[in-house]
Amino acid sequence: MEPSNGTSSASSYVFKKLRVTPARIVFYIATLAVLFVIHLKLDELKLAKTFFTSANPYWIVGIIVTQWLSYHFWSLNYRELLLVKGRTVPSHELFPMVIVVQFINQALPSANISGQAFFIYYMRRYGMAVTEGIGRAILEMATLYMAFGVFFIVAIITMAEQGMFHRHPRLLILVGAFAAIAVLFISIFLTLQRKRESKPLEWITEKLHLLFEKTGFDRIVSHERLDRHSGHVSLVVSQFKANLNIPELRRGGRHFLYAWLWQGMYLFMNVLTFYIAARALGLQIPFAAAFVTFTLTKFVSMLAFIPGGIGIFEVLMTLILVAYGFSAGSALGVTLLARIFTFWLPLPIGWWLYNRLTKNWNQNGATSAPEVLHS
């Protein structure tokens, strides 16, 4: 049954009085998720601390540098995507935002999609409309999947040259899964080039809209174009078509290619972090092995709807290193040391930045960036 206007107005009034915005709700949920993960992995954290204290401090500095560079390249990715539409935002102002995006992606599982909601909300402070923010988020996800696709293809070639498929034929399952997903994404891209509406997408969006109504989420988050099902479908489909059509990609070609490059550099810095972590513990791991191990593990963790791929990331990375001939103890040590800097350390930093960037926002999330960032 549809809620009455009186009920909806009362709910909106309560949320405004309590100064509860969608961003704050996500913050509370993410905080609970992080606390649960910490409680669940407390013993693992203690073990990781043991490996950290025994690591070479000079290599640790190298890990810190590569992680800083990874976020810097990610912020450059967003800068280029904003330039596609002529918006200029300095990369140093986007730097704290990407850390928060990473924090949300780790706390709320969604194949790296959940953090994009914060990006859309964040960019409203620069006067960007929600629809334009959705468009930039779509392009960011496109550059991520394109860059990762290149990484995975290189990993397949490397494994074939190393004879990994002959020694471990089960790895072909991952190759098959990647091929299936690649075909799906390419099919979606080609479908978006058509002018007619997608009936399956309308059906899916209709079901999601009904779910939001039942949970009451639509009373918390409102948008003039989302009030009707047709508007919801139009908003989503129009942004996909407007940003992923071939003529539009050609017009922003240079910036889009740069964004793709920076996304690749972001991934490469994470590979380098893993490689340096091995060297910090005295493990002489070939760079090709580090590249393959990270790429395969990242692929599975992106598909798994588990916060930060927790558990899956550690187990799979350790198993792949063991398949390369390293001892289980050494493999686990490298994995846990790398995760300190790629997963655990960004959590409190991202949590603090999220709280700082959102606690003074008004109900529409519209305040100027400089005041919040430099207050």
Description:
Residues 215-230 and 362-375 have low confidence and may be disordered. Helix 4 (57-83) packs antiparallel against helix 14. It is built from 19 helices and no strands. The relative contact order is 0.15. The chain has one domain (17-173, 257-374). The chain is mostly helical and 375 residues long. The protein is 78% helix and 0% strand. It has helices spanning 5-17, 22-40, 42-54, 57-83, 91-107, 114-123, 130-162, 164-167, 171-192, 199-215, 217-220, 229-244, 246-251, 253-280, 287-303, 312-323, 328-344, 346-358, 369-374.
Number of structural units classed as domains: 1
In DSSP terms (H or I, runs of 4 or more residues), the helix count works out at: 19
Q: Output the helix-strand order.
A: HHHHHHHHHHHHHHHHHHH
Which percent bin holds the helix content? Answer: over 70%
Distance between the termini: 46 Å
The coarse overall form would be: globular
Compose a concise summary of this entry:
This protein has 375 residues and is an all-alpha fold.
Which features characterize this protein?
single chain, 375 residues, mainly alpha, 19 helices, 78% helix, 0% strand, globular, disordered C terminus
Protein topology:
Elements: H1 5-17, H2 22-40, H3 42-54, H4 57-83, H5 91-107, H6 114-123, H7 130-162, H8 164-167, H9 171-192, H10 199-215, H11 217-220, H12 229-244, H13 246-251, H14 253-280, H15 287-303, H16 312-323, H17 328-344, H18 346-358, H19 369-374
